[in-house]
Amino acid sequence: MKKSIITTSILLVVSFALVLLTFGIGERVSIISYSNSEDDFERMVSSHRIDMSNPDALRLIPTEPESGYDLAVDLEDFYYSDGSISSRNSIDFYRQDTLLSEDDLIYGMPTANMLPSLVLPKKTDSNAQKISGIVENAILNTSKDRNAPRVSINLSTISAFRYEPVVINSSIYTKDTIKNIVMYVRDKKSLVVSPNVDKKYPINIFKTDASGYKGTYLHPFGGDTGLYQAVVLVSTANGVFGYTHDFTMKGRTSPPAGKTKKIASLEYTIDLTKKQVPSVLTGEPTGYEELYDWVRYMKADSFWVIGGQTTGWTGGITPANPWNSASKKNIDNLAKSENQKETKLGAYLMAYFAAGGGQKKGGYEISVGYNRETGRLIESRHISLASKKRVDDIISLLKYYDDNPNVHYLGLDFIRTGETDGYEMVDEMVALTGVYTPANWSRMSKANRMLWLARNRGKREISMKWRWFRAHTEALIIKSIKDSGIKKPLWAFTLGWAQGSEHGQDPYMFFDAGIDYDAVMIYEANRPQHVGMLQSWPRYLNGEYNVLVGNMIDNRLQDGSLRPEIEYMRRIYEAEAKFNSGSRIRGVFFHDISRMMWSKYRGSGNGIREWANINAAVVSRIEEKYSENPFTVTIELDEKQRRGVVTVLNRTPIRINNIKIKPVLSGGLSSVNIEETITSLQGGASISVPFKYAYGRNVYSSLLSFRVESQSGHENVAVAYTLLSTFKGIKQRKPAGVASSEPK
């Protein structure tokens, strides 16, 4: 492994040296004509041209001046399009099953194969079609003309994962004057040219020697796997000639996931032995081991806990000991607890976030950022992705947990840096992606090269290649971890907005590199942004991938519904239903239960048990959806009479005996009068059980929870909020900075 890393590094350095010593290329291609004549080809590539007049000149031609950038303007995000999803969907809050958006709701809860596909047909790009015609004619010319140049094509690989670049090296021999050279990649099946990650069709080319040329193809985010062809077009006085070399873009499939995963996470870096946890049964204060009982009370089957972090405020962190001791102690204690029982424990690390100067205390290279207001480079709160020491330290701690038989999953959080840092990797990025640089690049200091990247990051080509390079780098880190010999399933927390690409993340790249589960964080978004994710993910993700979705237990982050808790549930249901257009989501997670236990942001008046029942209800609905629960449970309310009905359906074909319906008090309720045992329920049969409820002195919207249990140990939890009709006519406060989506 070390030899391969060294070899790769040497190749990158050599490649970069060749770039600095060779010709530069002109500006990006501008297609102005699409017929198949030679003149039209010349006009088409007139701005994508190699200067052939002086083969010994050692210069680099800049494509654009360094001024004119504007980082305040966001890039056009080509993943997003207008859809039919509204940020003001009408929801019947009284029926638990209709918390799913109406587009996804099929009575009785839909199964996976009944979900509607939200993938829109791909638009045919007329430019690509016309370029493809020119390419095909050029290839035909080569087969007919004996005087066609002799061209050899050598690829860096003939089988690449989506996180790997494909370097196209071409040697061209001819007595004729070469007027221009252009490189493309096309789909082998459709013969249509494919865009690079920056959405350009031509590939930037560099001259490597008297007859050699090089270009780098970067497979676009979300690009299809399959057979492709590298294409080299050579224009001489005798015509335009085309040459090809086949290669494969491949992907790694996720391992079988089994039943839907239900996960509670804990991001708490303080010694748990110093905390009190109330008993699930009595409410009396107990120790940290009671956390397992709360996880099971939420109907979760896994408990993912932070097991390593590097921060400046943590005592005892040194280059030799870079991880906080409390997190490691917490994992050790939870792993040896007899109360773990059947719950699967996962340990994850905060990979590259190191607030408070943790990078320095840990002895790491710092990720360099940029302050636009001052125009200066700054230190960020992240460890550089180029830090080999950090990779080694991550692997070392993960192997420690991997060797513990009571730890079942390993995870990575912050397998990324910030959106606007990482510029210390400018040289590696330029060498790998083939971006055009200023003419004086070789004479610029490292600091000025970093400033050039920071100041030009807002330009589309540079930005997309910068994102791709970081995702590639993070994928290589994941591959190093996976190749280190760890045996247990590996997951990563990733960003939901733009599939994480803005911070250099990509689910396909991460799966190809070796993660077994992608835990997508749908939180820290307002309602319109959440709707944007509901539009973009099914356009992006399609196939058998172990993607999980999760929301954060924090009322500040749940705008868009009459109660934040309802929005919390609603977002999980919507994301679970929509994120993967070609398959089902493999699980849900609740982040994180320390907020449920000890944070004021769980909401005023919301107790631990209330949030636990909410999460248990989410799990129950997901289990119903995929036939992993024998019951379907719904609640209907009559607010005026303070009455309601709980309906229990036996989804199985066999009789279920000794069914108990247990209400759980919370909020302003003083009593719920029901405690009924159903002696038996035939297969396919249902029963509706009435109940009454009453408020205490303070009457306000309260959670009604019912837990339905069977003698066999199966459980289904349903919840509903009271008094919502009181607030239905109240116009909700619009989040700051968010434009209204309602028609005026």
Give a structural overview.
This protein is α/β, with parallel strands linked by helices. The protein has 3 domains: 2-67 and 122-250, Immunoglobulin-like (Sandwich), CATH 2.60.40.1930; 261-422 and 471-628, TIM Barrel, CATH 3.20.20.80; 633-727, Immunoglobulins (Immunoglobulin-like), CATH 2.60.40. 26% of the residues lie in helices and 25% in strands. Strands 10-13-14-17-18-19-20-21 form an 8-stranded parallel barrel, surrounded by 4 helices. Strands 2-9-8-4-5 form a 5-stranded mixed sheet. The protein has a 4-stranded antiparallel sheet with strand order 1-3-7-6, with no helix packed on it. Helix 1 (2-20) packs across helix 8 (426-433) and helix 13 (564-578) packs parallel to helix 15 (608-625).
CATH class of the largest domain: Alpha Beta
Low-confidence segments, given as residue ranges, are 10-38, 40-122, 729-744
Count every beta strand, where a strand is a DSSP E run of 2 or more residues: 29
Which geometry do the CA atoms define?
Answer: elongated
Gyration radius, rounded: 29 Å
- Kindly report the average pLDDT value: 83
Cα(first) to Cα(last) distance is 61 Å
Q: What is the helix content?
A: 25-40%
Question: What is the CATH architecture descriptor of the largest domain?
Answer: Alpha-Beta Barrel
CATH topology of the largest domain: TIM Barrel
Number of domains: 3
Strand ordering within the main sheet: 10-13-14-17-18-19-20-21
Strand content: 25-35%
Total of DSSP H or I helical runs spanning 4+ residues: 16
- Structural class, from helix and strand content? alpha/beta
What is the fourth-level CATH superfamily of the largest domain?
Answer: Glycosidases
Biggest beta sheet summary: 8 strands, parallel, barrel
